[in-house]
């Protein structure tokens, strides 16, 4: 039931994305509107293949990074909760919200409503692609969670090696981190402003740190979630652009 409640907001966001695209108003043209800020791209189709050799290198680097992170699981599980100052606790709570769909879905709806009010279909299209990337990251991480079945730190203190596939355990990978990095990657993909990566990725990193500080995930869960969310969201945005420009 808990897992179902966490997935419902993601499904709602997917429905909103579909409804938004289905109800697009052809008369809402951006040609007569002022140029959109360079924070938003025009969504042109990519000129390279959807999957490249770079994806294989990224997969290899991810596997290596996760394997190295498992060496730090026990140490991180002991050290991260030691950050109990008021600032650390507040930052951790803020980080949890940045990766929680219960907070992100309403924020998406508010921004989408603002775009509709201003009749900016260009920004709305970018926002929909970002949402699709977030949904793709959440779905991917949910599938891996189910298949792996790793126990959380508070379930098996001091023992990060408890893995029971399809047992209902849901530690690996971190869903909050995957969603946060998925949104960050999708925003980065949809923007051209150089300052954006220096904002969105540190915020996503804050989400990952909060999951370890709160004892919800091992360090390798966070690394895997970040990589999976990043890669899946970027591919989803690429695919959405190709679908729009397909003949």
Can you tell me about this structure?
This protein has 247 residues and is mainly alpha-helical. It is 66% helix and 0% strand. It contains nine helices and no strands. The chain has helices at 2-22, 53-70, 73-79, 86-98, 101-117, 121-148, 175-189, 197-213, 219-245.
Largest sheet: none
Number of strands: 0
Beta-strand share of residues: under 5%
**Number of contiguous helices:** 9
SSE string: HHHHHHHHH
The pLDDT mean sits at 83
The shape, in one word, is: globular
Uncertain regions spanning at least 5 consecutive residues: 1-37
Give the tags.
single chain; 66% helix; 247 residues; mainly alpha; disordered N terminus
A few lines on this structure:
The protein is mainly alpha-helical and 247 residues long. Helices cover 66% and strands 0% of the residues.
Spell out the blueprint of helices and strands:
Layout lengths: L1 H21 L30 H18 L2 H7 L6 H13 L2 H17 L3 H28 L26 H15 L7 H17 L5 H27 L2
Helix pairs in contact: 1-5, 1-6, 2-9, 4-8, 5-6, 6-7, 6-9, 7-8, 7-9, 8-9
């Amino acid at each position: 039931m808990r897992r179902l409640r966490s997935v419902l907001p993601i499904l709602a966001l997917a429905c909103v994305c579909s409804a938004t695209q289905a109800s697009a108003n052809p008369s809402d043209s951006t040609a007569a509107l002022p140029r959109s800020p360079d924070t938003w791209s025009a969504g042109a189709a990519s000129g390279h293949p959807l999957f490249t050799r770079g994806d294989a290198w990224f997969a290899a680097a991810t596997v290596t990074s996760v394997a190295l992170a498992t060496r730090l699981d026990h140490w991180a599980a002991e050290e991260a909760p030691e950050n109990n100052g008021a600032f650390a606790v507040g930052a951790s709570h803020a980080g949890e919200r940045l990766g929680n769909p219960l907070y992100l879905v309403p924020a998406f709806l508010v921004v989408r409503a603002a775009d509709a009010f201003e009749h900016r279909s260009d920004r709305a299209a970018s926002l929909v692609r970002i949402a699709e990337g977030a949904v793709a990251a959440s779905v991917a991480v949910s599938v891996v969670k189910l298949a792996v079945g790793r126990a959380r730190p508070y379930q098996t203190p001091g023992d990060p090696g408890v893995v029971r596939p399809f047992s209902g355990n849901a530690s690996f990978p971190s869903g909050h981190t995957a969603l946060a990095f998925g949104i960050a990657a999708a925003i980065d993909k949809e923007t051209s402003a150089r300052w954006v990566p220096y904002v969105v990725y540190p915020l996503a990193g804050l989400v990952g740190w909060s999951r370890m500080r709160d004892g919800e995930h091992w360090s390798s869960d966070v690394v895997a979630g970040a990589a999976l969310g990043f890669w899946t969201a970027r591919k989803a945005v690429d695919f959405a652009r190709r679908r729009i420009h397909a003949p």
